[in-house]
Write a structure and sequence with these properties.
By secondary structure, the protein is an all-alpha fold. The protein has 4 helices and no strands.
Length: 140
């Protein structure tokens, strides 16, 4: 054996653990907040077309990016994005009476596809948890 200090195991080789109760409650709250932003955006974007659409997408981006930075992990950005997506998908279904919330127009499609794109970008830009250790990445 060499006399070098070698790490015991990679952070990727560690078993997954369930989040703590506080973190799970935080993610649930962010999920519900994402759903509220999705419903509000769905109601706002057709009412005031160009400005409402931009405002709804900016609200989603602000929530996802802000949550990701506040939590410090990618899950903080994914939780509100998942809540937004679930709420918007549930609102796209029509009712037996023929009522619907999303008309077949360019604004609705831009809201759906733009919101998905914003969610993916925010989840990608969110900070990733780094393994514990020193500041140097490569040990020689």
């Amino acid at each position: 054996m060499s006399g070098r200090n070698e790490p015991s195991a990679s952070a990727l080789a560690q078993p997954l653990r369930a989040p703590s109760l506080g973190r799970a409650a935080l993610y649930l709250g962010l999920f519900l907040l994402g759903a509220v932003v999705g419903v509000a955006g769905a109601l706002l974007q057709p009412a005031w077309f160009p400005g409402g659409l931009l405002l709804a997408l900016a609200a989603e981006a602000g929530l996802c990016l802000g949550a990701g930075r506040a939590v410090g992990r990618r899950g903080g950005a994914v939780a509100p994005a998942a809540g937004w997506a679930l709420a918007v998908v549930l609102l796209t279904t029509s009712r037996p009476e023929g009522d619907f919330l999303f008309a077949a127009g360019s604004g609705s499609y831009l809201f759906l596809l733009g919101g998905i794109a914003v969610a993916v970008m925010c989840a990608t830009l969110a900070p990733v948890r780094q393994p514990d250790g020193g500041a140097d990445r490569l040990r020689k």
